[in-house]
Amino acid sequence: MGLTRSESLFRWVWEANRGNPVRENATLTFGSDGNLVLADVDGRIAWQTNTANKGVTGFKVLPNGNMVLHDSKGNFIWQSFDYPTDTLLAGQSLRLGGATKLVSRASAMNNSDGPYSLVMESKALVLYYKASNTPRPILYFNHEFWVNVRKGPLEYVKFNSTSEDDEGTAYGLNLEYQVANSSTGGTLRIGRPNYNNTLSFLRLGMDGNLKVYTYYDPVFDSAWEVTFTLFSRDSFWGSECQLPERCGKFGLCEDSQCVACPSPNGLLGWSKDCDVKKLSSCNEKDFNYYKLNGVDHFMTTYTRGNAIKQDECGNKCTKDCKCMGYFYNQETSRCWMAYDLKALTRVANSTHVAYIKAPKYDKAGISFFLKKKH
């Protein structure tokens, strides 16, 4: 996406063969049978539309960025809007019975699926994080004032840019939604730049944040403005501390900043190397817990946890080799088992506590749990 006079500022907004790259001299062929095929240089088919002999007569890229294969009457037989990766263009939807989610890229150098997903569920638009240690994706965003309906299922959630005045000087960036077989629906405005923002796209980033990027000519150095950010220091929806990997493998976050590395000997200065101490054994004789007061995990905000006593919570984690620690709300008696730690958030309420597993001794046989001097 961009303008032809500034091709160096183009931004990619769709990819066909995610996680299955082709080499130089690969071919993209629109066959006489109506099938569009991406083949590697050795003939291996990396991707195709599977539209052979389905009445396809033409292939177009439309002004809104939708790539379509159509029949003689102009009906779409296949369209890229039905197969989003991590991006929605203006007018594109997540839809019941079709693509219902966006998935982040793994990294800047790896275009395979990453750990984050934006999912249109039955009654809400939510965000999940999936790491190698977690048995299932962890919910890290489901705000009641976001796209969230009492009756479902949602038929679609559409990202759009619409004019909000007769002069066309103000445009709203919106998430429009509709409940299936119902008149229930609505529009959530997420941005309102004072210029035509039709050239905008909504992207789920590699860090799990959701942003809107808008092409704006006067910004000569980049031409792209960030016109909406879900998680930021000043966001209504939440700070960057809610992002699972905001502070690396294991760090304490406060006011969107990484402020400390938790350890058995207290809070140490923050660095990118913050990490948990690896256990050499699952035997409960070989590890202890260290306690952190006034902290939350990103999963505790939008998941209820189990209503059990604190001792029971600790016993469950102790007996589970994959459990890295547990979080407990002493006011509500709710327990959360953590199979991945990542970012912790400092909170004012001291009844929010965490217990993190750590080996009793390091390789030299020295205790990690040093006694405090009286």
UniProtKB/TrEMBL annotation:
Functional note: Involved in sporophytic self-incompatibility system (the inability of flowering plants to achieve self-fertilization).
Keyword Transmembrane in record: no
Protein's name according to its UniProt entry: EP1-like glycoprotein 4
Residue ranges occupied by any Bulb-type lectin domain in the UniProt entry: 1-82
InterPro entries in alphabetical order: Bulb-type_lectin_dom, Bulb-type_lectin_dom_sf, G-type_lectin_kinases/EP1-like, Pan_app, S_locus_glycoprot_dom, SLSG/EP1
Pfam families (UniProt xref): B_lectin, S_locus_glycop
Location of the Apple domain: 282-360
Keywords: Disulfide bond, Glycoprotein, Signal
PROSITE patterns: BULB_LECTIN (PS50927), PAN (PS50948)
Lineage start: Eukaryota, Viridiplantae, Streptophyta, Embryophyta, Tracheophyta
